[in-house]
Amino acid sequence: MQKSGDVTDYASSFCSYLLTEKRVLQNTYLAYKRDIEQFYQFLKNKRLSVQNCKLEHLKNFLKWLKTNGLAAKSLSRKITSLKLFYSFLNKRHNVENFADSLIFPKVEQTLPNYLSEQEIQQLLLTADKDISLKGQRNKVMIYLLYATGMRVSELVNLTFDQIHFDTGFINLIGKGNKERSIPLPKNIFKLLRHYQENIYPKLLSKEMLISHKLINYVFVSTQNNAVKPISRQMFWMALKKVLVKASIFKNISPHSLRHSLATHLLKNGADVRSLQLILGHENLSTVQIYTHLEDPQVRKIYDKKHPRA
Prior knowledge:
Blueprint: H1 7-22, H2 26-45, H3 55-67, H4 72-93, H5 117-128, H6 133-148, H7 152-156, E1 163-164, E2 169-173, E3 179-183, H8 186-203, H9 206-212, E4 220-223, E5 226-229, H10 232-245, H11 254-267, H12 272-279, H13 284-287, H14 295-305
Antiparallel strand pairs: 1-2, 2-3, 4-5
Helix pairs in contact: 1-2, 2-4, 6-8, 6-11
């Protein structure tokens, strides 16, 4: 039976809620968990409990974080964690939700790193040159990441069941277990079909193919005769190698290819709402940062398309 005011039990209950009801991604879950554990440590040091923690205590916690050098963006995430935690406690355990009054700090928007269309072309041409089995696997991953703008977590967990060769769409499962369908260019489907029929079977032994059949991950790695979906870190290392070979020395991550697609679509006339649907962002405001990336081009599109321009 849960002890009244025992924050560790509240935290455990909250973590279960994140996994079973909110069904957040693993990295999101771990971030929330770390934030609440840090908050618990603060309460413990101040000899407070969740139930007797008032708004002033929450503000003191945030002030303490800021004093210890936490940036505004990270502070905003802590506030998000507190708001979600206390909203949960209010609904499930009748704990007063003082976190609802917390105000997010003003976060200076920084433009994400991205590649120009010429650099993307250079990257893809370089990836084409590696004809090894793993090189061809990595090439398909890079092509697919840029073609869809999917998150790297969506890429490494992709299964063949999500690829619909008959309709020309790929189904993605994003944050909060929300699904979205994205049309793929014919050349990407051709690349995927070639990979499925000619590359994928050679990456695995016959025994591995049989045992892996039920899991069905598209991009795999093998260790000690065990088949696993390729890790984010492994793909990141592979991408870095291709970037170096392509003589691209920007600070680029897999997520940068998502930013690159968004920038290029906007530059070529896509509207922000369409961009939101493709990227799978819940809030339109999250997408609007891209409107600052190509101001001259946006002005050109506006002048060309607006009926009163």
